[in-house]
Amino acid sequence: MTRLREGANPKLVLDALLRMSKPLVGLIESSQISNSPELHVEIMRFLTAPGTEYPIRGLIHLLRTAHDTQSREVLGDPDLATLHVHCTQTLTTRLGMPAREKDDWSISTPSRCRCRLCGTLGRFLGARDQVRFEWPLAKDQRAHVHGIVDAHDLPVSHVTRRTGRPYTLVLVKTDALFERDATERQLWKSELHWLNMTARAFEARLPGSSAGAQS
Q1: pLDDT number for residue 41
Q2: Which of 32, 121, 131, 166 has an alpha carbon 20 to 30 Å from 179's alpha carbon atom?
Q3: Facing residues of 172 across strands?
């Protein structure tokens, strides 16, 4: 997970995590069968700890996979029930926050690089009222910034103006920032609706409780 998070385009990271959903559901089922509390704790730490930064879409895909492939007994596993509540609370909180304002051009800084160049890039990205940044840089420095923008699929155009010495890297935030935000909020609404509709199926059942009770 750490290597995926630090080194790849977010879309590729998400695709990789979606492919992990079925094996993770199997691992949760195995830990239930083997009655292994240590494994339960480790699984939940991996999926929900803030430091892991497991994408919410990946967590919900895992729940959807479990819902579509597993028995009612497995769906009542406390880990899946906890994960369902975690996702519901997370999306409820996000949707309770105001939508992005039309003049807010700030972009969260995804890179964990701590170099001087990324520090400057981060300040530009985080600025609400700055859309364009013209930055004279040497070739290798431009390449580093190009790489960060591309690796994290940022809604920022980056072209080199080849006049003067050094050449100037021109960064411009694009309208894709607002389009992505709107699309993401709509997705959150759809996913939260599914979570609410399936809440009963994921209710945790204690050992010895009736698994055959009707919803």
Answers
A1: 75
A2: 121
A3: 132, 157
For 42-110, the DSSP string reads HHHHHHH-TTT---HHHHHHHHHHHHHHS-HHHHT-HHHHHHHHHHHHHHHHHHHSPPPPTT-------
The answer to whether residues 121 and 136 touch, using CB atoms and an 8 Å cutoff, is no
CA gap 3, 13 in Å, rounded: 9
CA 136: distance to chain centroid? 33
Q: Tens digit of pLDDT for each residue in 90-149?
A: 999 999 999 999 999 999 887 778 899 999 999 999 999 999 999 999 999 999 999 999
CA distances from residue 177 to 98, 104, 130 in whole angstroms, order as listed: 16, 10, 13
Whether domain 116-174 has CATH 1.20.1050: the reply is no
Please give the C-alpha separations between residue 62 and each of 21, 66, 128, in angstroms, as whole numbers. 5, 6, 35
Asked whether the beta carbons of 148 and 4 are under 8 A apart, the reply is no
Structure confidence at residue 144 (pLDDT): 96
**Neighbouring residues of 101: CB distance < 8 A, sequence distance ≥ 6:** none
Q: Encoding tokens for residue 16? A: 């990789």
Paired tokens of 153: 């699929």
* Domain extent listing, the chain: 2-97+179-202, 116-174
